[in-house]
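Thread: quick sanity check before group meeting

JM: Hey all, I'm pulling together slides for Thursday and realized we never actually wrote out the predicted structure for the chain we discussed last week. Dropping the sequence here so it's in one place. If anyone has concerns about the input, flag it before I start.
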Amino acid sequence: PAQSCCCASYRHCRSGLFALSHSCRRGSLFTQRRAHQSRLRSSGRGLPDSNDGNAAMTQSTRKARCAVNVLAEGGRRLVATRPINPGRDVISEAPVISAPSTLDGRDRTWAMVRALLADAEKMTWLTQAGFRPVERAWDKEDESIARGIARDYGADALQVQDLYLRIAINQTACFDEAGQLAAFGLYATICFARHSCAPNTMLMAPRSRVSGAALRAFHPIAAGDEITWNYAWPRDLSMVSYAERQRLLYQLFGFRCRCIRCRDRA
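JM (edit): ok, ran it. Output follows.
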């Protein structure tokens, strides 16, 4: 609930935003607002500094309008926890781990495998996250790289292979502060949003001008609706035939789509 601050012109709410209730008689509104924000920051209740990207992203993640739901048949999905209007962000967050988009897909995935093996905390997170591995052929070059990484990090080659296959299918785009594609990474929440050829959100750069990604609604979403997006982004699948969509998704991600549109063969 809102609580009064030192000036009756402002009300402080949990989101750290301010609303003007009447004219302030104590001088410049700008000066009063800056002083008010400074007091809130010093007390630990205010908005994070605009230059603190991690703090800003942490706050935006707390305000997510969705939750991870475990499916009875296995796997997980994202579900809206309240109504969401078009143009609103369902969730905005920073990746747990990432690698530059300038690397090709294989090198990028191996880079994230190495980073995970070097960080016990993030390795534990991935183990508990429940990401599914992609189905793909494992050639001799892959086996050689996996053995080399296993030797370097004191791991088992099969564990390294499993890490690679889980990262390969679940990595998602990461945008920089300017809104440009800069990397691919694993997200604690966004990665659980499932693909749909008729999605209700779009992967976008965060509004907060920090590195990461956001799922932005472009259709009205009711509480309880599943949150979906197009994994083939930035390709537009709206005019692509059923057969071509299935071929593309299997080639890129190793699965056959069973979304509503594909079940209807639209």
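AS: nice. Confidence is low (pLDDT under 50) at residues 1-31, 40-61. The first helix runs from residue 29 to 42.
JM: adding both to the slides.
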